[in-house]
Amino acid sequence: MSDKTREKAVGYVRVSGKGQVNGTGPDRQEEVIRAHAERSGLAVAKVYRETYTGTETQRPAFTAMLRDLLSNGCRTIIVESLDRFARDLGVQLQLTALLAARGLTLVSASTGQDVTAAMQADPMMKAMIQIQGVFAELDKSLTVAKLKKARQLKRRRAGRCEGRKPFGSRQGEAETLTRMRELNDGRTAYAIAAQLNNEGRPSRSGRSWTTTSVRRILIRLDADSERL
Asked: Most CB within 10 Å of its CB: which of 3, 53, 68, 133?
């Protein structure tokens, strides 16, 4: 049977961070979706890819997909699994209810399940789907807790974990930072800033040193000294 005579469906691929876009996640999901469509006699007209957190209901690609489906007559959406659709149970239920209300069908390729029909018709199946969502949400919570713990440990060891790198860490800044330490001999931040400017030592922005910028760095240096 050719694609022209098959019922049309679309695929929905979601990864939760930009770091996953170039990995195997999206491609693997699309392979599973297309394999299920082939087994079910469906033709995948388009695959929508989303780089968005699973806990948000407002998703650009998802919104575009709904807009297209409501105008082109296609009514079936295939996802690899429910946790790829949304890992948060509440979001799963919201989005599935939204699809059902618009006459759209959501299919999980990993189970072959018509999720929207199951939730509407079978109380036991609805409960099983909700249980799947609970475990996906639990997995998300455990992952978040694990990452948080790792960040806290790194912060305790190094004093920093993420964010903008402090002055002195980039090329050409170490000498100025050393000079700032030398000048920090009881002088005010205003006096240090003035001396750095007189010596022609540039700040990171390339502008003149200010009392505020010098004071911020001195506070960090004092904090670093206390940790040593």
From this structure: 133
SS3 216: helix
* Dihedral class, residue 186 (left if φ above 0, else alpha if ψ from -120 to 50, else beta): left
Domain 7-143 - what CATH class? alpha beta
pLDDT on residue 228: 44
Considering only the top CATH level, what class is 174-227? Answer: mainly alpha
pTM, rounded to two decimals: 0.53
Q: Where in the chain is the domain with CATH 1.10.10?
A: 174-227
Can you read off the two tokens belonging to residue 174?
A: 């170490």
- The Cα 213–Cα 203 span in angstroms is 9
| 73 secondary structure, DSSP code | -
Instruction: Give the model confidence (pLDDT) of 162-185 as tens digits.
Output: 556 788 888 888 899 999 989 988
Given a contact cutoff of 8 angstroms between Cβ atoms, the answer to whether 131 and 101 are in contact is no
